[in-house]
Amino acid sequence: MNYKDEETLGQAVKAWRKFHHYRMGDAARAANVPYASFQRIEYDQGNPRIKNLALIARALDMSTDEVIARWFSDDEQKDQ
Question: Which of 7, 44, 71, 79 is 20 to 30 A from residue 57's alpha carbon, by CA?
């Protein structure tokens, strides 16, 4: 499944979790991210720490650079 098509990182994380039939706690453990941090990421609340972002990127089978470019750069740069 290609999570890059999702509008936000949180939506991509949720799609990944549902694709694997994980409950949130199971997904957090699978991604090796603390539960509260995973929950904030999935709900698009605040900005994740770079360590957690790297772990989420690995779970999504993406590089940290890809995640940052896709979901954390401004819209003008995404279109270039």
Answer: 79
